[in-house]
Amino acid sequence: MKRKRYTPEFKSQIVLEILKEEKPMSQIASEHGIHVNQLHKWKTQFLQDMPQIFENQNKDQAKMKADYEEKVENLYAEVGKLTTQLSWIKKKSGIYDD
User: Fold this and answer.
1) Verdict on whether the full-model pTM lies above 0.90
2) What is the C-alpha to C-alpha distance for residues 11 and 43, in angstroms, rounded to an integer?
3) Phi, psi for residue 48 in degrees, rounded to 5
4) DSSP assignment letter at 21
């Protein structure tokens, strides 16, 4: 017998339906043709993994901030280099007017 595979989206929809508590889990199981024990596993897994969603979000924000700060630092370094080059060119050309 071939084992059924369910998409993460489908599992999420079912778990959300369970969490709404509008219907008993046994009714949800029979409506979708899934054993109630499987629904318990999905719900448990979801509740255990839920904090990681926010943790990953914080990691993504920290990485974006670090990338941004690195770009700003590189831009300041480039501005400093160009300013020095411009001063040198002005000095060599005799149009240095500071």
Assistant:
1) no
2) 9
3) -70, -40
4) T
